[in-house]
Amino acid sequence: MTYETVRETDPAVADALTGERKRQNDTLAMIASENHVSEAVMEAQSSELTNNYAEGYPEGRYYGGCEYADDVESLAIERATELWGAEHVNVQPHSGSQANMAVFTAILEPGDTILSLDLTHGGHLSHGHPANAAGKLYDVEHYEVDEETGRLDYAGLDDLAHSTDPDVIISGFSAYPRTVDWEAIQETADAVDAYHLADIAHITGLVAAGEHPSPVGIVDFVTGSTHKTIRSGRGGIIMCSEEHADDIDSAVFPGIQGGPLMHNVAGKAVGFGEALDPEFEAYAAQVVENGEALGEALKANGLTLVSGGTDTHLVLVDLRPSHPDTTGKDVEAALEETGIVLNANTVPGETRSAFNPSGVRAGTPALTTRGFEAKEMREVGDLIADVIDAPDDSTVIEHVSARVDELTDANPLYE
Ligand SMILES: Cc1ncc(COP(=O)(O)O)c(C=O)c1O
Q: Residues at site: Plays an important role in substrate specificity (predicted)?
């Protein structure tokens, strides 16, 4: 995209847009929830569908002029159904958080109880944090990971479910590097007669490609983002059995949303189409292989990973054992100077604040899209470790920056 038309009418915004394209081209995006979509997805997202009001669902809209909106939404639904195999799919949530709120709206009454993973242990704000609407509307109980192993404590979750009698148990996480045992959590949900919502925001693409077991058909509701490990542009998705279809659809609209962002639904349709290509399976496998390579390199440099490694696209470094005086924010800032972009993150048993925590999270989806393989990921792991060892050393920062420039030049992104 050249933004020539925007430049003619609004140079200030054009500067920001071209600046962002250059930033993405010139840096290594390692925020685990980010990716780079194709030009085709971006074109669909900037289409005339942004002008269209399509309240309702295909063949049942509240306004006229929706024949092409119907085509696009039906294609997105068809392709999502093929990718994840759910009986019913709603592709209208504006984001993963909206998808979660729609499920809560469909199944909970104010004052009902949510049982979800604690934020500092890898959960998500939308799972009932006090600052989030869900935290204000519902009673919230949190389970944790085992601080020794960094792995989900399924027995502890089961005990807590029996003592708190939740209406819904949420599985699926923001900073959990390991495979989730959906069946084990479903057994608990069955035992306490609670719904089970699996929020696969981070791993939608891995699940679609068979790189992580699917919760579809096991749990009651599956939600996700459409822009993390699957490259279909910003948005959310909900999947469920036919039994809950009407409740979910009316919870999304008119429950919590008005007109769907049909241009984003078009992006989802295009991105889901791309994910149906066999090449996507190879991509997802590479994402996981790259996660392992990154983790191994970090460990070889003396860093401690929560849970000792990863089965997925992300690693979580606990800085406390190796670098007790360095915070996640120190590392995030020093790495950003070199062009490596990741985020500070809490770790299980966090002893600092959520704003300046003791860990950093790094992911491989975006670099894998750029063409990085295990060899490059191992080098990136070494570069990250060099900066963690010497965040204030300008010679190290310059050396790593120069290498980042070479790596980005060798793996170009957007023309
Ligand atoms: C587990 C989980 N759920 C929901 C979300 C929210 O997604 P969105 O930013 O699309 O609202 C995230 C975002 O990272 C997430 O990690």
A: 227
pLDDT > 90? residue 2:
no
Q: Give the strands of the sheet with 304-305, arranged side by side.
A: 304-305, 314-318, 359-363, 343-345
* Beta strands at 304-305 and 314-318: parallel, antiparallel or unpaired: antiparallel
Model confidence, pTM = 0.97
At 235-273, the pLDDT tens digits run 999 999 999 999 999 999 999 999 999 999 999 999 999
**Residue whose entry in the numeric block shows the structure tokens 């995006």:** 29
Please tell me the distance from the alpha carbon of residue 109 to that of residue 361, in angstroms, as a whole number.
35
Residue 227 labelled as part of a binding site: no
CATH architecture, domain defined by 283-410: Alpha-Beta Complex (3.90)
> pLDDT (tens digit, 9 = 90+) per residue, 378-388?
999 999 999 99
Out of 3.20.20.140, 3.40.640.10, 2.60.40.10, 3.40.1800.10, which CATH number does the structure's domain 43-275 have? 3.40.640.10
| Average pLDDT for 346-356 | 94
* Distance from Cα 348 to the centre of ligand 1, integer Å: 19
Is 280 annotated to bind a ligand? Reply is: no
Look up residue 57 and give its amino acid: Y
Please, which residues bridge with residue 359 across strands? 318, 345
